[in-house]
Design a protein that fits this description.
Layout: E1 2-5, H1 12-15, H2 20-24, E2 33-40, E3 43-50, H3 55-61, E4 79-84, E5 86-89, E6 106-108, E7 112-114, E8 118-122, E9 137-150, E10 153-164, E11 171-175, E12 183-186, E13 194-202, H4 208-215, E14 222-229, E15 241-247, H5 251-263, E16 272-278, H6 287-297, E17 301-307, H7 314-319, E18 324-327, H8 330-338, E19 346-352, H9 354-367, E20 375-379
Parallel strand pairs: 2-8, 15-16, 15-19, 16-17, 17-18, 19-20
Antiparallel strand pairs: 1-5, 2-3, 4-6, 4-8, 5-7, 9-10, 9-14, 10-13, 11-12, 11-14
Helix pairs in contact: 8-9
Bound molecules: flavin-adenine dinucleotide and FE2/S2 (inorganic) cluster.
Length: about 375
């Protein structure tokens, strides 16, 4: 952990609109709580943050629309400039620092904890409240079941002490004792006011969370949860056809979207196209679930498995005649198959490793002429 001080001594408060009402509304629950002022394109606001919580999580929990994507140190979207005060940098090696200018006082709000009162400038519209989503908060959870789906993929459930409502496509941050930092995982299930989160993890070689999950985790283990987070979400009332392109565990949030769309009859009047990229047939999972969704959609849902390293083999195809198998990178298979079928009635969802999501963005925007406002994505890294 390193300490970052503002490099603009004496100038900070003069840059801020003096708005005693805004500042006075902030309640400090204890002496350990700092006051964080935020100057954004929408004006001045403020929130309370304990010295043990990141600026991002404290602000989101209190309903501020602070900008973020990964909430876990990789993307750089939570950039803020520290105008006054000191913060602790919890993960100096976070890849997100490559996308900001630390020498000019930029910090990652998701990796910074206040050491005292401070003021930030955030290059976004930060306002209070975003009615569409439930406010995220801290939950106590326990691992309930662990099912190996392939040699490097595990599906597991976390049971929460208090119910959570989330939207299809959202994710949570998980933290376990003894491992620095929080990891983001997307929900596979879809339920309102549920105490059960179903999650799927693809093991990263040498990864801290993956190693724990595959080697040491057991039912009843305690786990800290923060959520729900993320805005790559599905809302039936928007009335879109759906295009989903996922690589590996990127399929997690798509399963949640399929669950909601199927249960709420979305495919009675809309079409869906799913492209799921894995290396070989041995890396496929959730095939039975896909078959059930295809069956219930009565011709309005197509699922294609794109195998990047090997052509499909007979037995798996035979067992799932309702699922299509193709060879190639998932974004290329999607581009070929959707040629002439992209439409402005469609909302596209992308998730998986960053190179896969970037490839799919190029396909959709370049080949499909899809406009960016019709694409929602999560990069898993
Ligand atoms: C929005 C989103 C959703 C995701 N959903 C899924 C999913 O459903 N399934 C899935 O398998 N993967 C998902 N991921 C990827 C997942 O969060 C992990 O990066 C991956 O599982 C590897 O974690 P690891 O601990 O095994 O590897 P590690 O290499 O140990 O850790 C990787 C990640 O952990 C965090 N981290 C590492 N060290 C620190 C530290 N010192 N301090 C703070 N943070 C640290 C960073 O986010 C880093 O990228 C998602 C990622 C994002 C951004
Ligand atoms: S949201 Fe902080 S680095 Fe991604």
């Amino acid at each position: 952990m390193t300490t970052i001080s503002s490099n603009r001594t004496g100038t900070s408060s003069s840059n801020l609109r003096t708005d005693e009402d805004v500042i006075d509304q902030v309640v400090r629950p204890s002496n350990d709580t700092c006051l964080v002022e935020v100057q954004s394109k929408a004006g001045l606001t403020a929130f309370a943050c304990s010295k043990n919580e990141s600026l991002l999580l404290a602000g989101l929990r209190q309903g501020l629309t602070l900008p973020y994507e990964c909430a876990s140190g990789t993307c750089g979207s939570c950039r803020a400039r520290l105008d006054s005060g000191d913060v602790a940098n919890c993960w100096p090696d976070a890849p997100g620092h490559m996308k900001i200018k630390p020498a000019k006082g930029d910090i990652l709000m998701c990796q910074s904890r206040p050491l005292g009162d401070c003021s930030l400038r955030v290059p976004a519209n930060v306002v209070e409240g975003f009615a569409r989503y439930e406010l995220p908060t801290h939950h106590n959870g326990r691992i309930e079941r662990l099912d190996r789906l392939t040699s490097d993929v595990i599906h597991f459930d976390v049971v929460l002490a208090e119910p959570m409502s989330f939207d299809a496509g959202q994710f949570v941050l998980l933290q376990i004792p003894g491992l620095e930092g929080m990891r983001a995982y997307s929900m596979v299930n879809y339920e309102r006011r549920t105490r059960r989160l179903s999650l799927v993890v693809k093991r990263k070689p040498g990864g801290g969370f993956g190693d724990w999950l595959f080697e040491r985790a057991a039912a009843a283990d305690k786990i800290d949860v923060f959520g729900p987070l993320g805005s790559a979400t599905f809302h039936p009332d928007e009335g879109h056809d759906l295009l989903m392109v996922a690589g590996g565990s990127g399929i997690a949030g798509m399963m949640s979207i399929l669950e909601r769309a199927t249960n709420e009859g979305h495919f009675e009047s809309h079409r869906g196209h799913v492209f799921f990229g894995v290396r070989t047939v041995d890396d496929c999972f959730y095939l039975d679930k896909f078959s059930r969704y295809v069956d219930r959609a009565r011709g309005n849902l197509e699922v294609t498995i794109a195998l990047s390293d090997a052509p499909p083999q007979g037995p798996v195809e035979g067992a799932h005649p309702d699922i299509r198998f193709a060879t190639g990178l998932v974004h290329e298979v999607c581009g070929r198959d959707m040629q002439g079928r992209f439409s402005d009635r469609m909302m596209s969802y992308l998730a998986g490793p960053p190179p896969m999501v970037d490839g799919a963005l190029r396909t959709l925007i370049g080949t499909g002429k899809v406009t960016p406002d019709r694409i929602r994505y999560d990069k898993f890294g």
